[in-house]
Each structure stands twice: as structure tokens, then as C-alpha cells.
Design a protein that fits this description.
The protein has 522 residues and is α/β, with parallel strands linked by helices. Helices cover 40% and strands 20% of the residues. It contains 16 helices and 21 strands. The strands form six sheets. A seven-stranded mixed β-sheet has the order 14-15-16-13-12-18-19, sandwiched between helices. The protein has a five-stranded parallel β-sheet with strand order 9-8-7-10-11, sandwiched between helices. A three-stranded mixed β-sheet has the order 1-5-4, covered by helices on one side. Helix 4 packs across helix 5 and helix 5 packs parallel to helix 7. It starts with 20 loop residues before the first helix and ends with a strand.
């Protein structure tokens, strides 16, 4: 394998055009094939061993709760310890594998995933409740992470390119990025392929070994990815698959003295707990654990009176209701200046009411939320919203044998209201009115989060102000606030949105490595 600047050849995976009949036919066929194999049992994977245990997690289709996607063996503290010891042993050999060789596993996995793109997307449709477009984007992003991080590890290994040092006469000075150790990856349900795969392979290609604890609601997709990595020949013990309880398995591993780092994507509450638990130095621990956390947001779209109002309304709706608002980047707030407020709100309401609700397998724009717990939480916030704003659309359970919620809009919401401040993680949009564009930006910034935002305006001076003053990790101008692309839009936020780790960026792998300087006398 050549290692000459391969990172220059990275290109984002093309998204599928489902208006083309051949692509529709292919997707329907993939869903049918995957449905034929539903209901299988999936083992815990520790090293070369596949372990079926009595305690299991049953994964169901959130859009049709009578349909079992698969049954996954559930880990325990005992198995967590076994996984840790296996990962520690594997690390001693894996850390010595050349970066280009480690990257080759990712490239091979990307090629196979690309060949089976619709199959992976079909699992996303059936287990996570994504429609075709959302599922296809998730799979494409997973492919991008494999391709991008493989190239990045090769680039980092060529330190004369990445970080040329000041050379002193009579010395040879060099920086090498070496792996950390065993990492715990705790992945979310909302991007159960892309984020799960991306955080896992970032750690692995950097020379670390991993214990993967997938989201309880989407363990089958993770199991399929583990199968893929086994198929490409990844050595046993490098990637260990351990579904299980957040306390019994997750917290045990977070607190383990041999855990070197934790990569977490999920809620603010759980992320803060992990951060606190990881900060305590345990007996026998030789390092301060590293935590890479992405903890959500209360993102929003700001619209001033100079904006293209049709485009702004479309961006608000796409940001709020893509994947039922279950994105950390979802635009659950809109802040609109008073002079165009009624007009924009009217457009948003009309677009929202045009959205059809139904089975993801039938590619409706709006599908189910992930599970009963999420459904109950969202419906609780809708009741709060009825006290805090004016209900303009939705507000009820939608029809269907699953966890369906109508896309909901509340207008005239006070910036301090709970539905303007707290992450709901569902199809609920709160709209606030601002006297002018600067107050609108102030309202946008009035949150403990800082992940994504969008500013719609045709005034360059206002755009310049927004670029400097809207406090978020990913700011979009005259666009929606979702849909970050690997390599183009490194993703991660400020404040309680996490540790500002820029996934899909050129500094991301540094989080999974440590820099070693060597200085040799000539």
C-alpha cells in the first residue's frame, strides 16, 4: 500500500437518489431481504469467542412494535472484566501494527459496506426508524468515517508532513503519535451506524483496542458492523462487542482502572456522570482518563427580515423534523424577527402539516421515535409546551403500531421557557419572536448548549456578526443546522454539548493518541 499523501483523495460518499426508479427498486429489495432474516440471536463477542447468555435484549422495530429485529445477549460485570482483559492482551500486539496496515482494514470495510449499502440502510430503517434518505445518509457517513480516518492515520504517521519540527544541528527530532490503550465506546441510537462505527474505528485505527457498548435500542446494527470488521480480518480482541446495562456494564468499565479513554455520545445527564466518574483515579490507575463526549444540544435557526423566507422556513422544518428531531443537531428552536415573524411562522406551519407520517420502510418523511421511554418524555414536553406557548400544529400521538408523535409547533414561546431551554429529542419545535436580528442572536445564545445553529440573512454585515457571535461548534449560514459531512464540516460543540471533539475533522485522531517526542544525537 502506498502512503504518499492518500488523504488528498478523500471524497464523501454519494447519497442515493431515491427519485430514480432503479434505486427505489433496490431499496425495497434490500428491505425485503433483511426482513427475511429478522429475529436472529446475536452473541456477545469477546476476542475470538461468541457468547450466548440467558439474559437478552429484544430489539423491536419502533414503527411496528410487533416486529422483532433481533435478540442480543446481554453483558454482565463478569463479562465486562473478561472483555477488558482480552482487550488489554490484544493491545500489546495491535499497538505494534503499522498505521498503514491498520488503515487497510478500514478501507476494506468501507468497500464492503459500499457494496451492501442498501442492506445496512435497511437495518437502520427497521431498527432505528429512519426513512430511506436518513438511513442512506447514516450509511454514507459510516463509509466516510472509515475512509477518512484511515487516511488520517496514515497522514499522522508521516510526521514530517503533519508536524515538521525545528531541527537543531547535531540532532534528529521527531514526533510520533502512539496509541493510548483500551477504550470504551458508548454509542447512541440516533446514528447507530455512523457514530457507532466512526467512534469505534477512530480508536482502532489509532492503535487502540475497544470495548463497544451499543445503544440498548439499536444493538443489531452494531452487531452487523462487528460482523463486518471480523469479515475483513480485524484481529480478534481489537474490537469487543458488549451490549449491557448502563450501570452494570457501562459504569463498571468507565470506572475500571485499566480503561484509558471513554468515547461517549448521548445525553447531557449521562455524559456529565461519565465525566465525573472517569475523573476519579482508581487504585492501580496509571493515567488520567481521557473523555471524548458529545452530549447533545438545543440548536436553533435564526431568521432576519432580509432572508429568503421560503428557504428559511424550509430549513426550519428540515432541521426540526429530520429523523423526528432525534438528532443532537436538530433545530428544536426558531428565532424570527418581529417584522417577518407571522409570515415565516405561517410558512413553517404549512410545510409541517404537509409532512406525512408512517412506516419508515414506506419512506414517509416522519416516522416513529425510538421507544416508549422517548415517546413518554416527548409527550410530557408537549404538555409543558401547551402551558408555555401557542400550539399551532401537532400535539398528539399519531396513528400507527409504533411510537409515532405528530410534528408539533409552539409559537410565541418565551426564551426562558423550558421548551426553549431543555433538549426534548423529538419532533417538537418552539418558536420565539425577537424585536430585531441582534436580539434574535442573543436569544439563540441563551442556552447551556452550543452545538449547531443556522443564521438566515442576505446582509453581509449581519452575517459577519453572526459568524463571530453565535456561540456554537457548527454554524451554518442560509442552510439548515443538520447534515454535517465528514471532512467538510467537522462536528462537535461547546459548553454542555460536550468536549468540542471535532468528529470527521483533521484533529480528531489526536484525541485517541499521545504524542511522543524523540530526540537523537547524530
Amino acid at each position: 500500500m502506498t502512503t504518499t499523501a492518500p488523504y488528498t483523495t478523500f471524497k464523501n460518499e454519494a447519497l442515493t437518489d431515491f427519485t430514480a426508479e432503479e434505486n427505489k427498486t433496490a431499496m425495497y429489495a434490500a428491505i425485503a431481504r433483511v426482513k427475511e432474516g429478522l429475529g436472529k440471536k446475536y452473541p456477545i463477542v469477546i476476542g475470538s469467542k461468541k457468547l450466548f447468555v440467558e439474559e437478552e435484549t429484544v430489539s423491536v422495530n419502533p414503527g411496528n412494535v410487533d416486529e422483532v429485529v433481533g435478540t442480543v445477549s446481554k453483558g454482565s460485570t463478569k463479562l465486562a472484566e473478561k472483555a477488558m482483559q482480552t482487550a488489554l492482551t490484544a493491545f500489546e500486539t495491535w499497538k505494534k501494527v503499522a498505521p498503514a496496515e491498520r488503515a487497510a482494514y478500514l478501507f476494506k470495510a468501507a468497500a464492503l459496506m459500499r457494496e451492501r449499502k442498501h442492506e445496512f440502510s435497511a437495518y437502520l430503517v427497521l431498527e432505528s426508524g429512519k426513512n430511506w434518505v436518513e438511513a442512506d445518509a447514516d450509511t454514507a457517513e459510516a463509509i466516510d468515517f472509515l475512509e477518512f480516518y484511515g487516511r488520517e492515520m496514515i497522514r499522522l504517521s508521516e510526521t514530517s508532513i503533519h508536524q515538521p519540527l525545528t531541527q537543531i544541528a547535531g540532532e534528529e527530532n521527531k514526533i510520533t503519535y502512539i496509541p493510548l490503550g483500551v477504550g470504551i465506546v458508548i454509542s447512541p441510537f440516533n446514528f447507530p451506524l455512523a457514530i457507532m462505527a466512526g467512534t469505534t474505528v477512530a480508536a482502532i485505527v489509532s492503535g487502540n483496542t475497544v470495548i463497544l457498548k451499543p445503544a440498548d435500542a439499536t444493538p443489531v446494527i452494531a452487531a452487523k458492523f462487528v460482523e463486518l470488521m471480523e469479515e475483513v480480518g480485524l484481529p480478534s480482541g481489537v474490537l469487543n462487542y458488549l451490549p449491557g446495562d448502563g450501570i452494570e456494564v457501562g459504569e463498571y468499565l468507565v470506572e475500571h482502572p485499566k480503561t484509558r479513554f471513554i468515547s461517549f455520545t448521548g445525553s447531557r445527564a449521562v455524559g456529565c456522570r461519565i465525566y465525573e466518574k472517569a475523573s476519579k483515579v482508581q487504585d492501580g490507575q496509571l493515567w488520567l482518563k481521557r473523555v471524548i463526549a458529545e452530549m447533545g444540544g438545543k440548536d436553533g435557526v435564526v431568521v432576519d427580515e432580509t432572508a429568503d423566507l421560503d428557504a428559511a422556513a424550509a430549513a426550519i422544518v428540515a432541521s426540526a423534523y429530520g429523523y423526528q428531531g432525534q438528532k443532537c443537531s436538530a433545530g428544536s428552536r426558531a428565532v424570527i424577527v418581529e417584522s417577518v415573524y407571522d409570515e415565516v411562522v405561517s410558512k413553517v406551519v404549512q410545510l409541517t402539516k404537509n409532512l406525512s407520517i408512517g412506516l419508515p420502510a414506506e419512506n414517509h418523511p416522519v416516522g416513529p421515535v425510538i421507544d416508549q421511554k422517548s415517546f413518554d418524555k416527548i409527550m410530557g414536553y408537549i404538555e409543558i409546551g401547551k402551558q408555555e406557548g401557542k400550539l399551532l400544529a401537532g400535539g398528539k400521538r399519531a396513528d400507527g403500531n409504533g411510537f409515532y408523535v405528530e410534528p408539533t409547533i409552539f409559537s410565541d414561546v418565551d426564551p426562558q421557557a423550558r421548551i426553549m431551554q431543555e433538549e426534548i429529542f423529538g419532533p417538537v419545535l418552539a418558536i420565539a419572536k425577537a424585536s430585531d436580528w441582534q436580539e434574535a442572536i442573543d436569544i439563540y445564545n441563551n442556552t447551556e448548549y452550543g452545538l449547531t445553529g443556522a443564521f438566515h440573512s442576505q446582509d453581509d454585515s449581519r452575517i459577519d456578526y453572526a459568524l463571530e457571535n453565535m456561540h456554537c461548534g457548527n454554524l451554518y449560514i442560509n442552510k439548515k443546522c443538520t447534515g454535517a459531512l465528514v471532512g467538510a464540516h467537522p462536528f462537535g460543540g461547546f459548553n454542555m454539548s460536550g468536549t468540542d471533539s471535532k468528529a470527521g475533522g483533521y484533529d480528531y485522531l489526536l484525541l485517541f493518541t499521545q504524542a511522543k517526542l524523540t530526540s537523537r544525537k547524530k
